[in-house]
Amino acid sequence: RRRRRRRRRRRRRSALMAAVANAAALYVAAVSTVAVGAVRAVDVERALLKHRELDEQLTLRWRHALLVPVVSSVALLVLFYFFAVAAFMLALVLLAVSVGALVFLFEPLYAPATDANAASSLTSWPPRTALALAVATVLSWLLTDHFVLCNLLGVAMCVLSVATLRLPSLKVAAALMGLLFVYDVFWVLISPSLFGGTNVMVHVATSEATNPVRTAATAVGVDAAWIAARSLHLPMKLVTGSYLLGLGDITVPGLVVAYAARVDASSLLATSATNGRPVLPSTSTPADGGGVATASLFAHALAGYAVGLATAMAAAYGYGIAQPALIYVVPAVMLSTMVAAWRRR
Questions:
Q1: Structural contact between residues 154 and 237, judged by C-beta atoms closer than 8 angstroms
Q2: Residues 69, 70, 72, 74: what is their CA dihedral angle, to the nearest 10 degrees?
């Protein structure tokens, strides 16, 4: 009996340690992705402004804030009812997007951190080494469906989105976050009562797509069983063990953190123009020169995201069911950012 008890205790201890390790890995990956994306957003926008190549089409306006939850809901329903066909097409799209996102993510590894190089990844053909590395990574994911590679693709797409999409004001940020708060609550907590007990968002996130390589090989009469994985976990989430976090739970708050970082960058010149008293500019356009300020909106926004995500993960573990992360992340990010903005005025 004592041996059995000891074994049970060891098993419980091992399971707890594994859960903590998986949760910690996912947490660090998500917070680091947001931080890297925000810092890259400052570098990229400063470089594009210097070369007068800033694209207003990448700025999210009020109409975009209203449309994002609607379009996301429609896409979610299409994947829920027609996953086999829609996921195959989505996999093809993600293949192309992932290559570009990985080239952007790898840029600091092959290019010095200068304004010219910050803009080059968006405006010119990437170096062969970076492109080859990106293609090799995507092909490895296609052939193995390894979760680490899938997570890497997800991280790359999050960094690219956070660094290139712009929020013009804190009001638009609040509207977008508020609407997606409702979106997350509905599809995670309310949808099971409307779809026969099935959690639509979790169902779509955990479903596997047909491998395009396997499909193409079968079409030409080649046995690809030993070449490519039969199915693919699409890079629409980060996964470590039993923990799962959607890319939207990283990208959307990341846009607010990136906005805060750009405001900090622009306020460096505003500070010198107002006798040392920092002010919030009317737009998020950073000044030419300088990075993220020390006492910054960026630090408060990132800290808010870290606290909100930690709370969401603790709630998921405590309740034992999937939690809509934005329920915890949205109030934490917006409250910390707004308090910091109010104190700076």
A1: yes
A2: 160
- What is the structure's pLDDT at 299? 92
Distance CA 138, CA 115 (A): 28
C-alpha span between 199 and 206 (Å, rounded): 11
Q: Is 184 a catalytic residue?
A: yes
Burial of 291 (0-12, 13-18, 19+ CB in 10 A): middle
Residue 157 CB neighbours (<10 A): 24
pLDDT reported for residue 321: 78
Q: Active-site residue among 55, 115, 145, 184?
A: 184
Is residue 55 part of the annotated active site? The answer reads: no
- Rounded to an integer, what distance in angstroms lies between the CA atom of residue 202 and that of residue 311? 19
Question: In 10 A of CB 58, how many CB atoms?
Answer: 13
Residues 43, 145, 249, 264: which is the catalytic one?
A: 249
Say what the pLDDT of residue 268 is: 61
Mean pLDDT of 28-53: 85
Alpha carbon distance 298, 292 (integer Å): 7
pLDDT (tens digit, 9 = 90+) per residue, 223-246?
A: 666 666 777 888 889 998 878 899
Closest CA to 175 of 258, 95, 65, 249: 65
121 vs 145 pLDDT, higher one: 145
Give the 3-state DSSP-derived string for 143-195, with helices as H, strands as E and coil as C.
HHCCHHHHHHHHHHHHHHHHHHCECCCHHHHHHHHHHHHHHHHHHHHHHHHHC
pLDDT of residue 227: 64
Strand partners, 232: 209
pLDDT bracket for residue 24 (50, 70, 90): very high
The alpha carbon torsion through 106, 109, 112, 118 (nearest 10 deg) reads 10
Q: What average pLDDT score do residues 139-166 get?
A: 92
